[in-house]
């Protein structure tokens, strides 16, 4: 949340920002502001990826300063639910932290607003700090069961993953080549829950959005490459995925929703993206 507030304070058009944001699964709304925009009014509804929560909160706060008359509400139940909701016309925009599947893309426009790395999260006390993609696949399929096989102590590996609706899980399993092959000890419903599980167990391994990594966990190198923007852009770090704000191809986007999406894709919105450690799509 500190990153969100510092980013928005730096980018605000004018006036004081209102702190406070939704906890995972709750809504974040724009309700008031002081900066003059077009004077637009209306409501924008979004739902989807929990990995995109910090980004969405930053964007909503920044947009509040520009268009205080527009209310933007976002829920964070997971990418799968976001795609279902926008496909069924229940929301204006469905957020997904993965590429759209072919059958989804037939009906939805994939608006990629940022690129995010996927970090392999380890407990800071874990001696292991560099895992290859091949070793990662073997860990998640149960072939490698002990940390001593990848540079750690002689301890059983506790494999943490996300729930089936998670875009992070979809992207991770696809990149690593372990779809429908993983043997999870736990399947958790949010990025925060994965971080908490790994932070509280020195033998746990999990995957989270790179921009969610803080001092409670550490991001392992992957095949010698650091988990950072430079390694993602030069292709040496293999775990990355898009942040998508999906819209319907068959239903016209409302004027308030289109204006918000244009803001996100524009200069001010992309400044928020960069300020939160995410990568702007080239």
UniProtKB/TrEMBL annotation:
Pfam family, one: PBP_like_2
Domain (PBP): residue spans on this chain: 34-264
Keywords of this entry: Cell membrane, Lipoprotein, Membrane, Palmitate, Phosphate transport, Signal, Transport
Subcellular localization, as worded in the UniProt entry: Cell membrane
SUPFAM superfamilies reported for this sequence: Periplasmic binding protein-like II (SSF53850)
Any one annotated GO CC term: plasma membrane
GO molecular function: phosphate ion binding
Membrane topology: Lipid-anchor
Residue ranges of the TM segments: none
Family: Belongs to the PstS family.
Function summary: Involved in the system for phosphate transport across the cytoplasmic membrane. Part of the ABC transporter complex PstSACB involved in phosphate import.
Subunit comment: The complex is composed of two ATP-binding proteins (PstB), two transmembrane proteins (PstC and PstA) and a solute-binding protein (PstS).
Protein name: Phosphate-binding protein
Species the sequence originates in: Acetanaerobacterium elongatum
């Amino acid at each position: 949340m500190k990153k969100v507030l510092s980013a928005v304070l730096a980018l605000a058009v004018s006036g004081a920002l209102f702190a406070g944001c939704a906890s995972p699964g709750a809504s974040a709304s724009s309700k008031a502001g002081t900066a003059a925009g077009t004077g637009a009014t209306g409501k924008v509804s979004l739902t989807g990826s929990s990995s995109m929560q910090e980004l969405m909160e930053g964007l909503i706060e920044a947009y509040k300063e520009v268009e205080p008359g527009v209310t933007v509400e976002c829920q964070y139940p997971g990418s799968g639910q976001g795609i279902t909701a926008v496909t069924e016309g229940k929301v204006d925009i469905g957020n997904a932290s993965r590429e759209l599947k072919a059958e989804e893309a037939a009906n939805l426009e994939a608006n990629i607003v940022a690129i995010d790395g996927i970090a392999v999260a380890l407990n800071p006390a874990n001696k292991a700090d560099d895992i290859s993609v091949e070793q990662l696949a073997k860990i998640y399929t149960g072939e490698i069961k002990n940390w001593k096989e990848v540079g750690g102590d002689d301890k059983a590996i506790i494999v943490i993953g996300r729930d089936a609706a998670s875009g992070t899980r979809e992207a991770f399993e696809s990149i690593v080549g372990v779809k429908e092959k993983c043997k999870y000890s736990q399947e958790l419903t949010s990025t925060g829950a994965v971080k908490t599980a790994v932070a509280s167990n020195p033998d746990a391994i999990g995957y989270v959005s790179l921009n969610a990594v803080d001092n409670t966990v550490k991001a392992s190198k992957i095949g010698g490459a650091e988990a950072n923007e430079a390694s993602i852009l030069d292709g040496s770090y293999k775990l990355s995925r898009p942040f998508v704000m999906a819209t319907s191809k068959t239903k016209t986007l409302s004027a308030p929703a289109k204006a918000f999406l244009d803001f996100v894709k524009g200069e001010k919105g992309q400044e928020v993206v960069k300020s939160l450690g995410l990568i702007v799509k080239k």
